[in-house]
Predict the structure.
Amino acid sequence: MFPYEIDDKPKEECGIFGLFAPGLDVARTTYFSLYALQHRGQEGAGIVTSDGQVAHIHKGTGLVAQVFNEENLSHLKGHMAVGHTRYSTTGSSVMRNAQPYLIETLHGPLAVAHNGNLTNAPSLRNNLLQRGIGLSSSSDTEIIVHLLSGAGGDWMSRIRTFMAQAEGAYSLILLTRDGIFGVRDPWGFRPLVLGKIDEGYVLASESCAFSTSGAEIVREIMPGEIVRLDEEGYSVVQGAHPQARAFCTFEHIYFARPDSVLDGKSVHHVRQALGRQLAREAPADADIVVPVPDSGTPHAIGYAQESGLPYTEGLIKNRYIGRTFIQPTDRLRRASVAMKFNPLAENLVGQRVIIVDDSIVRGNTSGPLVQMLRDGGAAEVHMRVACPPIKFPCFMGVDMALQTELIAATKSLEEIRQHINADSLAYLSVKGMMHAIRESDGYCNACFTGDYPINVQLQLQDKAQFQQVFGIG
Amino acid sequence: MFPYEIDDKPKEECGIFGLFAPGLDVARTTYFSLYALQHRGQEGAGIVTSDGQVAHIHKGTGLVAQVFNEENLSHLKGHMAVGHTRYSTTGSSVMRNAQPYLIETLHGPLAVAHNGNLTNAPSLRNNLLQRGIGLSSSSDTEIIVHLLSGAGGDWMSRIRTFMAQAEGAYSLILLTRDGIFGVRDPWGFRPLVLGKIDEGYVLASESCAFSTSGAEIVREIMPGEIVRLDEEGYSVVQGAHPQARAFCTFEHIYFARPDSVLDGKSVHHVRQALGRQLAREAPADADIVVPVPDSGTPHAIGYAQESGLPYTEGLIKNRYIGRTFIQPTDRLRRASVAMKFNPLAENLVGQRVIIVDDSIVRGNTSGPLVQMLRDGGAAEVHMRVACPPIKFPCFMGVDMALQTELIAATKSLEEIRQHINADSLAYLSVKGMMHAIRESDGYCNACFTGDYPINVQLQLQDKAQFQQVFGIG
Amino acid sequence: MFPYEIDDKPKEECGIFGLFAPGLDVARTTYFSLYALQHRGQEGAGIVTSDGQVAHIHKGTGLVAQVFNEENLSHLKGHMAVGHTRYSTTGSSVMRNAQPYLIETLHGPLAVAHNGNLTNAPSLRNNLLQRGIGLSSSSDTEIIVHLLSGAGGDWMSRIRTFMAQAEGAYSLILLTRDGIFGVRDPWGFRPLVLGKIDEGYVLASESCAFSTSGAEIVREIMPGEIVRLDEEGYSVVQGAHPQARAFCTFEHIYFARPDSVLDGKSVHHVRQALGRQLAREAPADADIVVPVPDSGTPHAIGYAQESGLPYTEGLIKNRYIGRTFIQPTDRLRRASVAMKFNPLAENLVGQRVIIVDDSIVRGNTSGPLVQMLRDGGAAEVHMRVACPPIKFPCFMGVDMALQTELIAATKSLEEIRQHINADSLAYLSVKGMMHAIRESDGYCNACFTGDYPINVQLQLQDKAQFQQVFGIG
Amino acid sequence: MFPYEIDDKPKEECGIFGLFAPGLDVARTTYFSLYALQHRGQEGAGIVTSDGQVAHIHKGTGLVAQVFNEENLSHLKGHMAVGHTRYSTTGSSVMRNAQPYLIETLHGPLAVAHNGNLTNAPSLRNNLLQRGIGLSSSSDTEIIVHLLSGAGGDWMSRIRTFMAQAEGAYSLILLTRDGIFGVRDPWGFRPLVLGKIDEGYVLASESCAFSTSGAEIVREIMPGEIVRLDEEGYSVVQGAHPQARAFCTFEHIYFARPDSVLDGKSVHHVRQALGRQLAREAPADADIVVPVPDSGTPHAIGYAQESGLPYTEGLIKNRYIGRTFIQPTDRLRRASVAMKFNPLAENLVGQRVIIVDDSIVRGNTSGPLVQMLRDGGAAEVHMRVACPPIKFPCFMGVDMALQTELIAATKSLEEIRQHINADSLAYLSVKGMMHAIRESDGYCNACFTGDYPINVQLQLQDKAQFQQVFGIG
């Protein structure tokens, strides 16, 4: 499909936000915070608010600014809220899987906003079906909702019960009559951070969400922790025994906004460090360093700094690029990448160019970009990639591609170089990547190494089977 | 609210349709059949199709012709289908309560289309919540879905288990891997009829739905029966012991399309008979008989036939009337009813007019209509109503009004006459109504008599409480 | 195309309304008045208001209730207004040809609402093009606007200049800084009527538009007259010498709402008289008289009254019929007419039926209706049509069909009878029709007789040529 | 109004494109080319195609990718096309002023796409009105259309006649039966460039539009020239005597895409040169140079290169920023700028920061940005602006602001510095700017100097007056 050819990026499934703040317009605050999390999902958005008794919900498809207006925001009353931004692959299922998911339970309203992917979803689904519970969607969130509402005790113990059963990646924000709960899986795959505002506390996928409300970072939620926001402030308990930590490296490489702080590290800083390490590992005899804007820019700046070569803009990005469903004719086949990028010939003519990208997934844009640089006059083009080759699909909440689509899963380094027609090609090593991040372990590098922190064999098969049941929905 | 002032009609909650017909385009057939059931709900429509393994769904808000197009119909594949048209009070909840409701269960897909109202929904909801099942909507259909998926045995025994628990009005059409099931509650509140086409069998709320597919009526489903459509044809079992029969009289008076056959009787014929009986019970010394078009037309024809007075059109109805949300100013206050009706002065001048309507609910349009006839030149206006005074709300699937809004619940006959400024006013008696229908019992006349066939005390309180939980949703 | 197969009616091009009423909410009053003119055009609507200096406009596609809301009405300020409802054949050109048409001129704003068709449009267009004026649409209204703005003198003399050049059907309402003008062509093809309200005067295509504002009829505008509404009240002048009068007979037969008064005659009364005359001219040995609802109902009532046969409902019309673009399969081929009508078998079984329709255009629904009556049990079916055979296209503002599509243009009476499979078929005679209308001349019967009151040869050729220039636009 | 507070940029009115290319899918090529001109207008888009006889048009509101789809593109047939992207201030007038403007003339279809502003529009309008031509919009384009269609001779001579009357900025692309014409005003205010593809020739506002079709730059159209594209290829004539050249400096500073070539100069290169000159003129004792992304980035790179200070990212821009109409509460007042930018504290802490922006218009975002840098830890903040103070409104096609809104028109340098709370503030000098562009004259610097190349006194007054006539329409 054409719309995806002009992009070679993995997709994060969601951004989540929640707060407990009596006296504040919590819906409005959530709106502005979701705005800052828009990069984690552009296909849908939703907000649930409550005073603990009555819950209000509005969700829809599109960007945050398209889903909400003064009229529907005005109905979202209460002193606590959860919000969600969502990426979704198929149009027709968008509304069925939209979040937050709100239900009535014996213990009052329950709203769930979820970021991640449960690797044992098939067996959890099956357990629910065995209990006679019918499932109306393919989403993990519906499973989570039923596991939480079906467990005994108070909300805290219900969450613990859920954590004892669930495997995989989940950062959750829950709205209940007892307050807002933040939950992070025992591996810590996906981020979750706590902040403070005058009227109370907030939780978000990334600290960049705090910018529009002026919240200050308190701390990141640790793997297996449950944090509760209520009239008392916030309290943290260990909800499940932490597993070997497995934070998603790709959050640092590409997903997170550069102004966020993840795992105590500035994302922008990590990206520059990745570029520097790449320069050390894979230097090239060249004249200039050029980024693939915008995501490759900090990596390229780091590469340039370390290599001593000048950092130069060589590709202009069309700021108004959006999805197009118009097919280019053969005559316009070059239009696909040209719609997004254009070379700056004056900076390129006669130059030996090092082009730095943050990652290569399917490899469908790298070749046209190399050609574009050559058309712009580059004498040589050396591609440098600020992460290792992606050879394995993600089962922890990222939509990368089917394994058969991953170019590094099927081609050798030299074959890829020929495929993209670069004079040289080098990726960052896994070891070098971790060195740049200044960690030796605690990160999930499964997409590079195939070493999945947890068992995921049934996943793909089940996904296919499940889609059989629900058809086109 | 203005849009409702120009209408004084009760609202039926839904129309349902289903069929099992290998070799037929079941989605298209369902589409045309829902078209003929559009009078039972104009706010939303949906179709689920399946081959028993994979289910496909499309539903949306608006008229059938607005919800479906060739593109979305083309995805609805299979050899069986259920469809639904829906009336709904509040815009924002339309999609959440839209039908058919489709879920995955341990036993394959389950789709439910429901017409009715469960009078013990509060306790059924509570049972589900006690079992730890969270509920995502205020609809009975979600309750039904969970009760069916949570029961044991095959689909037939699950339906029996449901019927043993449920109280109130329900005509259901279910799609399962075992075929299509039609279910009618043991009281027989709402209609359900079986038909035959070349490729198989169909089920519908009313026989008028058969017109567009050329189906022939086989028989009406009896109270407490379950009918199953599959490769073998159809089979009927008694799913629950029938209760004292309580078919909704209002289906005959107003809801059903006049070309339908209900309880073995032509609806149009019953309406003319109601008019005749009204003429016998409440004659008037007048010159002409005029209907309130279109629903009062057959009753007025019957009245004219019995009375020997000439039947005359005295009010013209705007065929393009739709919902308007524009408020008339005081200056335009008469516009409200004038948007819908206009008098035919030439037929009215100097005449003593008998105006016949099928029913009066709130009484907000009768007064303006009487005045309109007087403005048109009528010398006298005698209002005759082809059913008894409506004094009690319906709990079996009809949205009439709150009891406090029912004019006959708070005013005497003489007070109503004065309120609408008629020269005389008479309603049909309950006894006369049943005489016209040619039945002495077996009908639910609770809205006239307050004798509810089943216990419904908790209903209203619960509805209010429930809406508290879900807010504006 | 399927959507048109279920309707065999000619289409009126527009309804127009205007008023001068300081102190009134003129936009709101126009809104409610357009509501009552909705039968003259359902494809688009527009309102222009002004205080004489500043003009405000809002127009859009769809029904009046869909185009306007409180927000856009609130911008339409001033003490005078013109409004328009429009029927249009092609979706894409709707907005380009939408009315009213508003321009700035040397003499202030000019808004034009037009009902009719200029038969010398080709030469008028050519004159304008010769003057170097480019035309941005295919509409007569743009021609009128340019002829008015290009003429000299005050608005009254500009209108006279226009009338001296224009040929064909035009009822116009103009908004200028000098007030509202109503203009009717010298033949009087299309209706235009003046009314009085407390705050001033109103003009409308039909008097039914007065119902929602409570206006009283003052008089109809005569052929060639110009009426002006301003602070002084109203004044009438003869703008052009009247031609041999040629009021459209079809306004009486089908277009106008039955509660309107046209040419001093109640439309409903004329329709009953047409039915009576039809009974005299074309009796049948039958048992009952059945209308094709709703437009054939008054004609059938008249037929029944004159013939002494009982008037009976034999076809039920689906009140929710709308445009559908879903194609029925061969299996569903009967669905087409069945979507709109259904027989009432109990009234038909064994009966010899006279079915009365107001007119037959293409003849595509009569056959299925006859068959439907037979399927419903009718022993014989005698079709009676309350106007003469339509053999010629209209060039005065009605979209009937191409001549080749008119069944009576290509088939004899007996061929039509066989085509629709009726036991007998009879049309009203032209002479009988005029007798029923109680006029011997003064009416345009060109669609029946081919005697066009004015020269129209160039019309069709030009229309085709013109569409060549503008393509699909 | 809030949506504009988060942006302090002038708005270009349009981008234009045209081509003559038999054998090519000209609509599709225009679509992809408009995509690359999206930065010149995001409010509307349109395409007209033709074979010389029949013209086809589609236009609508929104981004190019929103306006067009395969279905509407498929109707746009022919071998030549013009396209347009548009910025517009008011929603309701978007469609009325949408371009291209297509009319029928005596000489076949005429479509006009216009970029610019006629400074003598008032007198041209008046001439047309005096000639009795009514005007249906406030757009220059309608004036141009009437002047062209009203002139004598062939299209070339009509264009010359137009040029003899018109004053101000206009780059036009016309579609006629004689081919495509490109016209540039005698001052050369707005750019227009000719390119070559295999099948013919193309014209565009900027050369960046050539990227998606693979067109090669042939030459820029010179002031006063007319270029004609037809079967013969292209031909150029001098349509009007060139005036003292006055190319818009702001095209180089901000409007044009950096990969375009304007006046023979790479835009990106000019922007870096402006930054270098700024560094020479206004150095600061600081540690790092930070851009206001994205438009200030090349200027900042140039400043850093010249100053020898390190170039660093200090502000992260939200890539998903769009228009929002949600008002922040007082509590969220900082959200406004924070929705668009966020500081990178790690790069800022303790640093003396030079922040480089391309321009300051109203000055409403500079203060919050300075504060954001301070909040991020900057020790000092020195604002440098890569153009001179904007003190005068533009009348040549740019929507900057009313003069009273221009901060430099009402405040001194020191007052502005205090207003934005910077430690120092400096603008580039006019002389330095021209030095960087390597031109001493030939540019319009009226917004900086007030020296308008042509008389524009009546403009503003007329605009206000005109809007009076058309109201909100």
